[in-house]
Amino acid sequence: MRSTIPKIAVAMGALVLTAAGCAVDGASASEPADRGTVGITLPTTARPRWIKDGGSMRKQLELLGYKTDLRYAEDDAATQADQVEEMVDNGVKALVIGAVDGPVLKDVLERAAADDIPVISYDRLLRGTPDVDYYATFDNFRVGVLQGRAIADRLKLATAEGPFNLELFGGSPTDNNATFFFNGAMSVLQPHISSGKLVLRSGKREFADISTVGYETKLAQTRMTELLEKHYRSASVHAVLSPLDRMSLGIVAALQADGYGTAAKPMPVVTGQDVEVDSVKLIAAGKQSATVFKDTRELAKVAVRMTDMLLRGETPEVNDTEQYHNGAKTMSTFLLQPVDVDESNYERILIDSGYYTAEQISG
Ligand code: GAL
Questions:
Q1: pLDDT computed for residue 363 by the predictor
Q2: Mutate which of 47, 50, 146 to test ligand 1's pocket (most atoms within 8 Å of Cβ)?
Q3: According to the model, what pLDDT value does residue 31 have?
Q4: Is the CB of 43 under 6 A from ligand 1?
Q5: Regarding the domain delimited by 5-132+295-337, which CATH topology (the fold level of the hierarchy) does it fall under?
Q6: Residue 213 CB contacts under 8 Å (≥ 6 apart), including other chains
Q7: Which residue of 52, 139, 144, 325 shows the fewest CB atoms closer than 10 Å?
Q8: What is the pTM of this model?
Q9: Where is the signal peptide (predicted)?
Q10: Whose CA is nearest to atom 5 of ligand 1?
Q11: Ligand 1 in contact with 215 (CB < 6 A)?
């Protein structure tokens, strides 16, 4: 490993402070240098995390003297392809893309490459194209490992006899991250399924059978309701693997509607990801067991630093050159570490760090 996260975080802090506080390449603080426009397109405004991601990148890039063209594709791959095309036509200096559906951007990225516009894949991998330069993301396999462990620890799978009933939910099939989340979780859970300690009453084990288009709350709620009706009239479910908080909301709603959440019928273990405010409230209330925190402020710093270095003709720092192959090339990647959050640490990790205010969580 060539770098540690704290090191890059400190370096980025220094970089931003320098840009904010004094001259950038001869320009005054009140009138920063014009380094051209960076185009940013992210999947959707429907998930608060992407709004934070976009806002952080915009702020940091502007402090460095770049203009930004920040857009959201509202989960529509064709819209995102149009956005990128327009940005290329407008002569952006670099592109940062959080893909809706990687392969759909192949042609327009070929045009960006022809114009020598560097492309950074942000959080989600741009698949099926050689025309992407760097990848900034979290360790998505580890996100799944943390979710699997949240189940294993709470059911005490190491020592308890079981068997326990588990149901699996997967993320969006168009998002490359979704299989990483799933495979990471299954690396923890599969041995217990094989030994019979965890039982899938629905029999659904493969990603293709449990994936959830667009990570939709409603789809997750409907599927959970159906699972309960079909397989849990004479048994209880003890754990539900949910890859994302928005889905956990639907899953918890279905469970509550079925009578879970009382002393006689306790809530099963339910996992999540993204520390969405509604889910942190559920965690505080004991209705969702855990979530996973990806500090989007740090990811934005990594992407901004990569962009800035590329535009200065320097080589960005990476810490993984093996895990992510996009179908055309193995990516030079900077991976940040996700953090598991539950009732024992959410205040320290989310409020003390300034990610949320206490009012946001209690209100
Ligand atoms: C994933 C991302 C998650 C979550 C999800 C839904 O790609 O890694 O953190 O935001 O998309 O938008």
A1: 67
A2: 47
A3: 54
A4: yes
A5: Rossmann fold (3.40.50)
A6: 172, 173, 174, 219
A7: 325
A8: 0.90
A9: 1-23
A10: 244
A11: yes
